[in-house]
Amino acid sequence: MEFLGASECNLGILETLSDDTIQEITESYDGFFTTVESIVAGTGDSSVEKEFASHVYSLCKHGLDSLVRDHFLRSLEQAFEKRGASSFWHHFDAYSDKNHPSYGEEIKEVLCKALEEISIEKQYHEKCLSVVVHALQSFKDQSPEARLNSDVERVQLFSRFRSMLSSTLMTTLPQHFPEILHWYFKEKLEELSAIMDEDDTQERESDCMDLDEKLRSKNGEMDVDEGFSRHDDLVKNIGKVVRDLRSIGFTSMAENAYASAIFLLLKAKVHELAGDDYRTSVLGSIKEWIQTVPLQFLNALLSYLGDSVSYGTTSSGLTSPLACCPTPSFSKVVTPSEGIVRWKLRLEYFAYETLQDLRIAKLFEIIVDYPESSSAIEDLKQCLEYTGQHSKLVESFISSLKYRLLTAGASTNDILHQYVSTIKALRAIDPAGVFLEAVGEPIRDYLRGRKDTIKCIVTMLTDGSGGNANGSGNPGDSLLEELMRDDESQENVGFDDDFHTDDKQAWINASRWEPDPVEADPLKGSLSQRKVDILGMLVDIIGSKEQLVNEYRVMLAEKLLNKIDYDIDTEIRTVELLKIHFGEASMQRCEIMLNDLIDSKRVNTNIKKASSQTGAELGENELSVDNLTSTILSTNFWPPIQDEPLELPGPIDKLLSDYANRYHEIKTPRKLLWKKNLGTVKLELQFEDRAMQFTVSPTHAAIIMQFQEKKSWTSIDLAAAIGIPIEALNRRVNFWISKGVLRESTGTVSNANVYTLVESITDSGKNESEELLAGDEESERSIASVEDQLRKEMTIYEKFIMGMLTNFGNMALERIHNTLKMFCVADPSYDKSLQQLQSFLSGLVSEEKLEFREGMYLLKK
């Protein structure tokens, strides 16, 4: 009889068989069916197995071996589904409505017990499968060709059985079982982490022990192996669970469960180590913990499962620091398997990404604390280099800026300080300035809309707070000095003094060249043109360096005019630094202003020296020239000075006249033209029961000196006596009223108040130098502000603007600007910037001469 192949069952051959043969097959199949039920049910003995083997032989002889395999596997499947799967899932029915915290410790025992039972059931079914494999093998041993394929068929048969077993369990899988596995591995890994932390603590304490304690521990007084045994036992328990899960086809589910538990534990560890402490680097501690806990666990787990360590060189081609850690106690170098290397890469990437997300979420606070938080910035830089998720930083930080900084409630000074800190911090993360360009754009746009931006920038550059809002810079250092010092240190590292400047700069540019990152905006210029220059970026907010220089010139003039001595060392240093950045031509007027004070000091010394040599006696009520210190200005080089009429008392006026005459004698043919409303006056007021000292403006001094003649004045008479408007008098006299020197009362004449000198009153004890009230300071400005100067200069263009809007109806800012540049070419030609024009138009809108709607300017109707 012809034998069919082992993988085929041609039932059509039955038509060619004789009745006796068919009867034999029928009887063999009935016997086969009966013996299969006995074997699967566990009620058969050795005689049943022999009968089963004979029936298998008879069926295979007629080419029905595939029928034998299929029926037997189907019988095993039904039996396993009835006894094995249902019993296994029944263990977890009680936990279907519970969440993770409610599982309790008993779930660990339940899981281990269920896996043990299902493993025993699986082993029994595999034993049954071995019976049919043995029977088939006995038949195939008679055929030389079939004997060669017997091992392959055996593997295939067991593979089909395992697939059947896994699919049976999967089709009846409860929804909450993956959560149970996740919770189990999470609890076990947390326990393992605690053991590791305890071992580290004991190791650190052991390092601190003295020699006697270490000797006692070696003599057995301390159990140094206790932690390792606990660790090994725990890993073995986990490994047994993983092995059992693998055996029932849950390999992927088991790996997902302990992988998610590992990542969850790693995330918690990163949060614990990072926290809100930005002054300490945590990346090294995180990587060390990864090496100590998860990787050690995985290595031990895979070792227990038999697939972790290989000797020699791995075929994966992946490199890892783990591969360079030989064990001294072994003759061979132990290298990690491909699985361990991949796990290390996955864990490190997840740690970098988690820490990166934490730092990006708190980047606003980190930058506020910069440079104290430079460690956190360095960690973030390394994370971004590893993950490449710079765009996430840009989007998140811009959102934080718009929500927390770029609001009406934040002062311009705070915004500028945060902007400078942002530049410094992001320069450390991204030296190319690509992402700084994107982050800084909304800040610059917002600051351009604030009127006091220029003034705050100049103040921040020239004050002594080092560019920090809390004044934490080096004492006496301005932000300008700090920036210049940083630039100098960056430009001059590693070069000799005799190195040619052009060659030096070319070498610096060549050595620092890098291609633009892929995220770079091509419209912003290449890396070689982009310079992360803090001062340049601040000037970019204003629009031009001329505006910044003009604002500084006004501020410098105000400082110089309010000085009561000639100490200008700080101002000279600042001007020299500005000359380095803006050029000597831009700072020429400021230099002349400083030279005016230097010349004033010399002239003042000469005049006083000449006066002391003449020795002329002073008349009654006359004042000595020694009481006067003058500041002589070159008016053409100073900003416009506020000039108000003021009549000074006779002795003061004579003192100024004598000083001017002496100046004319020394500096013939030059003459002095006094600005009587400018300067400061030191006064000491003597009362019946007190003496008070003040440093005030000449106008305030002129007011109070009038009360030497009579004790009471009306506002009209007093204003006429000192030559100022009544409105100005009422504003200035409030200073003396607030100090308790004058008392105000209602006069008999309408709109005229009466001011009376308070001769005798119990004072609060203020007899030291008093300064002007803060509310009066703004009204006492000696120099016209840049805004006032701009408004005065732009007034001549107001008619042009009104005419354009009358003809064209409405116009955008850029169109107005371009039209003025095109047609206003005669003297004076239009040379203002777009920001200056916008400031002027905003003033016209506030004066209700224009309207601004939807980005367009139009005449007020």
From TrEMBL:
What keywords would UniProt list here?
A: Cell cycle, Cell division, Mitosis, Ubl conjugation pathway
What GO MF terms are annotated? Answer: ubiquitin protein ligase binding
Under the cellular component aspect of Gene Ontology, which terms does the record hold?
anaphase-promoting complex
Q: Where is the Cullin family profile domain?
A: 537-737
Top-rank lineage group of the source organism: Eukaryota
Q: Which Pfam families match?
A: ANAPC2 (PF08672), Cullin_AB (PF26557), TPR_ANAPC2 (PF25773)
Q: Which GO terms describe its biological process?
A: cell division; metaphase/anaphase transition of mitotic cell cycle; protein K11-linked ubiquitination; ubiquitin-dependent protein catabolic process
Q: Which family would the database say this protein is a member of? A: Belongs to the cullin family.
Family annotation (PANTHER family): ANAPHASE-PROMOTING COMPLEX SUBUNIT 2
Protein name as annotated: Anaphase-promoting complex subunit 2
